[in-house]
Amino acid sequence: MYDLVIIGSGPAGYVAAIRAGQTGLKTAIIEKDVIGGMCLNWGCIPSKAMMESVKLYQRIIKDASRFGVDGIDKKELSFNWNKAIKRSEGIIKKLTGGVEFLLKKNGVEIIKGNAKIVSANSVLADNRLLETKNIIIATGSSSTTIESKHDGLVVDPTQLFIERELPQNIVVIGKNPVAVELAQSFNMMGKSVTLVSDGDHIMPLADPYIRNFMLNKIKKERIKMFNNIEINTTDGIWEDGNLLVDGQSLPCDLIVNAKDRKGNILESDVQLETENGFIVTNERFETSVKGIFAVGDVNGKSMYAHVGSAQGLNVVNFLSGIEQELDMSKLPMNMYTVPEAAQIGMTEDHVKEAGYDYKVSEFPLSANGKAQTEGNAEGFIRILSETKYGEVLGVQIVAPNATDMINEASAYMQLESTVYDIAQTIHTHPTVSEVFMEAGFEAVDKAIHK
After folding, report:
1. Whether the Cβ atoms of residue 144 and residue 259 lie closer than 8 Å to each other
2. Does the N terminus or the C terminus of the chain have fewer Cβ atoms within 10 A?
3. What pTM does this model have?
4. Where in the chain is the domain with CATH 3.30.390.30?
């Protein structure tokens, strides 16, 4: 009899399993493919590794001479997709191997095979019936399908980051930050890129201020963009290397499917409540069946790995007798665009809807000394605070390292800090993170360097 059986070994599943092992719970984790799930093997890690390769390539082209580096012949420079892929594969192997080591170190049994929930207390896997007190479903999500009768024309993220001959004309379909990230990556490689959103705009969960910034950035990069377009290549809108989009015929050698994802609902003899392709859970991430929990992408609350990990930890803590609500509004949202963007807490639209009397305090990176020395002074920080007590309601950042910087805002919000606390927090100089202190001063009175 196990205390806990976890199905899926992505960040939601493996983090929960490691923590469960640390707390003394007899735990098994079932994985049908490879340890690390989508994030480590096909998503977060390879895409970020590729983005770093591309950013370095662009920086050499644009900034080497300006930074005093002579002798580089730009005509001889080119981006090698396959070499960048090999680099990412090395990183993936190291990380997935580390996760497997930690699972074993903490006494977690790893079972390879497909899983089927037989009852609230039993799971079938690898021709074994596992009896368990609790079950966590962490099966992740999959891309919404784009039908195509043309072999190899459409690729999903799981098929993208492999060694291949990358064609010149690429169409990215999707509206989420991943779609924008991929479009920018291909564009920086020198490819001709079109971004097709199946919604009214891109990055629908981002604060409109960030969204508008990225829209302007995409226009400057000359990435073609279309909104409210559904692509289905079986109906004749792709022919002879051209894609018909909104009445225009666009060169198209490859379509990258970055559409919104749906939960991977596994086979089960137990009826679990679902909605819009995801498993329904309560505030403890428990499904409609007592003792069965669902964390990460599969419950549809968030598509971010760190959120899935936080949910998994929350469930294990609950099973260990520690009841603590996970406030999803205080979890950061990262967007690995160029420059990066991140936000936490309420957007300005949400603040208005809630009826707060609020203040917006903004400070630009262009006034930050470290950002200037690095040659990356594009971006800003915005702090939304209520005017009576100065409590921080939300933070938005656009900066080269915004996805790291947002964690400082996360700490402020977890502690229910005010703008006065931010203004009084001494930041070392010169650092880009000084923009927090400046925005804090701006909220209290007036920024020092503005």
Report:
1. yes
2. N
3. 0.95
4. 339-444
pLDDT per residue as tens digits for the range 343-369: 999 999 999 999 999 999 999 999 999
- DSSP SS3 for 49: helix
Sign, CA dihedral 104-108-109-113, equals negative
Beta pairing class for 274-275 and 278-279? antiparallel
| E strand spans, 241-377 | 242-245, 248-251, 254-257, 261-263, 274-275, 278-279, 292-294, 333-335, 340-345, 358-364
Could you give the CA distance from residue 178 to residue 172 in angstroms, rounded to a whole number? 10
Distance CA 437, CA 73 (A): 42
Peptide bond into 339 cis (omega under 30): yes
Q: Enter the tokens of residue 165.
A: 């001959």
Beta strands in 290-391 (DSSP E): 292-294, 333-335, 340-345, 358-364, 380-386
Sign of CA pseudo-dihedral 116, 118, 123, 126: negative
Q: Does domain 154-257 have CATH number 3.50.50.60?
A: yes
Residue identified by tokens 């990215």 is: 172
Q: Which CATH superfamily is domain 2-143+262-329 in?
A: FAD/NAD(P)-binding domain (3.50.50.60)
Query: What residue ranges of the chain are covered by domains with CATH 3.50.50.60?
Result: 2-143+262-329, 154-257
Which tokens belong to 63? 């900034």
Both tokens assigned to 277: 């392709």
Q: What distance in Å separates the CA atoms of residue 396 and residue 419, rounded to the nearest whole number? A: 14
DSSP-based three-state secondary structure for 418: strand
pLDDT digits (tens, 9 = 90+) for 135-168: 999 999 999 888 888 888 999 988 999 999 999 9
Active site residues: 429
From the CB of residue 333, how many other CB atoms can be counted at a distance below 10 Å? Answer: 24
